[in-house]
Design a protein that fits this description.
By secondary structure, the chain is mainly α. The protein has one domain. The chain is built from 3 helices and no strands. The chain is elongated, with a radius of gyration of 13 Å. The model has no long low-confidence stretch (mean pLDDT about 95).
């Protein structure tokens, strides 16, 4: 399994879900997806052709996860 490709798949799903999220549970699910994508990007080995991009996306997805978690606290259950 290529962790980079798996993380990009989660990114695509999470981006689509984020456009429709209304309830706190949906935002928490989104936060978990972004965290999973961040973890996968972090698992990309240094010899991978897209390692540098993976390092950037690791931080970006972590920020998305934190933002979704904050949003969940503002929403109804």
């Amino acid at each position: 399994m290529d962790p980079f490709a798996a993380a990009v798949r989660i990114d695509n799903q999470a981006s689509a879900t984020g456009k429709k999220a209304t309830y706190s549970t949906q935002w928490l699910d989104l936060a978990a997806r972004w965290q999973r994508a961040s973890d996968l990007m972090n698992a990309v080995p240094p010899n991978h052709s897209r390692y540098e991009e993976a390092q950037i996306r690791t931080k970006l997805y972590k920020k998305y996860s934190e933002a979704a978690e904050k949003e969940s606290k503002k929403r109804p259950s």
